[in-house]
Amino acid sequence: MDHGGHGGHLDLPPFTLARGLEWTGEPVFLAGSLLALALYGYGVFRLRRRGDEWPVGRTVAFTFGVLTIVLVMCTGLNDYGMVMFSVHMVQHMVISMLSPILLLLGAPVTLLLRSLPTGRARSAVVSLLHSRYLWVITHPVFTIPLFIASLYALYFTPLFDTLMESKAGHVGMMVHFLAVGLVFFWPIMGVDPGPNRPTHVMRMLTLFAGMPFHAFFGIALMMGSEPMVDVYSDPPASLGIDALDDQQAAGGIAWAFSEIPSVLVLVALIYQWYNSEQRQARRSDRTADRDGDRELAAYNAYLASLQTRGQ
Questions:
Q1: DSSP characters for 76-122?
Q2: Which terminus, N or C, of the chain has the lesser number of Cβ atoms within 10 Å?
Q3: Secondary-structure percent of the chain, ordered helix, strand, coil, rounded to 5
Q4: Strand, helix or coil at 1?
């Protein structure tokens, strides 16, 4: 079997963290990451130049999101991921679950809308956000099956081996993982405007509907009695690893990672829900101040009338 799907990695030494973090600079993801940071930075600059504020926390979240992509795609992890199932699973989990959450916490769509001047470009973005196409691809009926299929329909069919035969296939697969993560978590996070705006309860239900399948997938890999993915069934001798042990490690990573995003998103949702309730309470207080609590007075009068009738 040719383990060097894009360039040959038969002579890779045993994996260590230092070797995994060596800079390689995969060109597609490096260029995309630099472009994303440049565009985001330019948007923040435009807002600041006209005197508008942009939360520092959002900038930090987006930057860290991009850096997580660079970490797993532009270092030795990308090379070892071609021949080690466990390292590949780290790439998959980070780029499909951690990176999208951080990117979305950066509110890039909101930044785009606020930084674009009124005109055709901004109108086009607004039209896209309200399009039926985006409504479909961000709806849970679409995103949950897509999220699940990205695991089971990919790894347990010949499609994965086919994609791993070429650099373009591997890069395309990773782009797919990132895109699936973004459309799955976009309506759940609720930071940016979008065509689907579910309630906080529905967001939690959508999250919990998808996450268990990651855990089940990890358990299936850990319990396998033989290698289940052909491309990783015969690792190069230079690595000094056993294919089944490596698969079980990959399963453990997939199982453990299913919990991390759940906690992050759940904390973010509770925080958003709390802020939403606080804003609603402040609006109610302001309304009461303006009308002199007429609604409360009317309700008390109604109760008094009921009491009078009963006498």
A1: HHHHHTTT-HHHHHHHHHIIIIIHHHHHHHT-HHHHHHHHSPTTHHH
A2: C
A3: 75, 0, 25
A4: coil
Q: CB neighbours of 149 closer than 8 A, spacing ≥ 6?
A: none
Q: Classify the C-alpha dihedral 21-25-31-37 as positive or negative.
A: positive
Q: Which residue has the tokens 């490690």?
A: 249
What b/e sequence results for 11-49 when a residue is b if at least 16 CB atoms lie within 10 Å of its CB, and e otherwise?
ebeebeeeebeeeeebeebbebbeebeeebeebbebeee
Q: Which two tokens stand for residue 236?
A: 């190069």
For the chain, percent of residues with pLDDT exceeding 90: 61
Q: Amino acid identity, residue 289?
A: D
Below-50 pLDDT ranges, the chain: 1-8
Token readout for 85 is: 């199932």
Identify residue 9 by its one-letter amino acid code.
H
* 260 token code pair: 């991390």
Q: What is the DSSP letter of 258?
A: T
Rounded to whole angstroms, how far apart are CA atoms 233 and 238? 15
CA 2, 167, 243, 9 torsion-angle sign: positive
pTM above 0.85, yes or no: no
How far the first Cα of the chain sits from its last, in Å, is 93
Nearest to 192 by CA among 259, 102, 97, 109: 109
d(CA 21, CA 91): 12
Q: How far apart are CA 131 and CA 133, in angstroms?
A: 5
d(CA 116, CA 126): 11
Angle at 62 between CA 121 and CA 49, to 5 degrees: 55
Q: What is the pLDDT of residues 29-83, one digit of tens each?
A: 999 999 999 999 999 999 999 999 999 999 999 999 999 999 999 999 999 999 9
Q: Which regions of the chain does DSSP assign to beta strands (E)?
A: none
